[in-house]
């Protein structure tokens, strides 16, 4: 029978992806890591990892074993936490993933407030715009826009969020204000190359109807803040979340274009592994985050 330390060892090795990296974390030699893995596989009677000279990769059995190992270790951690500490005093490591723009603008400050109230919790906030596998990368939760396509993850809606088309008054004075969606074909549109290869396809909803428009423009980027600066500088029209453009609209630096057409699946969600794994500190942070975002963003939801 494998022990808790064996499970933790395997999870670490799978995440590190090499004997050398795992050995460095464990303070042992790579051969010692290889020997321990071999003993685990002998006990289980199956191969968990494929080996190469530089990397290791999960077999099919290894993927299933990793998923269960993460769940078991999370349950043990949750049990230990509930026994060792009162509910009002959570402790331990909390790993959070969020997008760059929203993470900098809102999540970082919420984390700051949270650790002031719960100083025994250690928070690691990792920002990335590219989707990541929360389970394999060892994150407790992620902040996403739109629901998660991964059926193994649980989603909780934190806040409504709309995406609008916007442009600077200077650009609209020069190029005219679009009156219908087809007018966008004659405009410079600034696009983000992030979540999909079809980055130049914009999808909209209005009154339960859907529209798809192919846009064009001379500027594109994988960084939302850069693209927003280009919009502010008068280079074209862009799709952007209301939380990000509200203050620019209120100051007059941006104007909303065709406001009745919204992009679908833009709401803000907390995404986390299976519900039975939700530890006290994760549950507490999600509740804290939901209350904080409601206070911070409630004003913006009805103003545009």
Task: Provide a short characterization of the protein structure.
With about 300 residues, the protein is of the alpha/beta class. The chain folds into three domains: about 5-80, Arc Repressor Mutant, subunit A (Orthogonal Bundle); about 90-160 and about 265-300, Periplasmic binding protein-like II (D-Maltodextrin-Binding Protein, domain 2, 3-Layer(aba) Sandwich), CATH 3.40.190; about 165-255, 3-Layer(aba) Sandwich (D-Maltodextrin-Binding Protein, domain 2).
Overview of this protein structure:
There is one protein chain. The protein has 304 residues and is α/β, with parallel strands linked by helices. It has 3 domains: 4-81, Arc Repressor Mutant, subunit A; 90-160 and 267-301, Periplasmic binding protein-like II (D-Maltodextrin-Binding Protein, domain 2, 3-Layer(aba) Sandwich), CATH 3.40.190.10; 163-257, Periplasmic binding protein-like II (D-Maltodextrin-Binding Protein, domain 2). The chain is built from 10 helices and 14 strands. The chain has helices at 4-16, 19-26, 30-44, 60-84, 100-117, 134-137, 169-175, 224-232, 242-251, 280-301, and strands at 49-51, 56-58, 92-98, 121-127, 141-145, 153-159, 163-167, 191-192, 201-206, 209-214, 220-221, 238-241, 255-257, 268-273. It has a 5-stranded mixed β-sheet. A hairpin with a 2-residue loop joins β9 (201-206) and β10 (209-214). The mean pLDDT is 84.
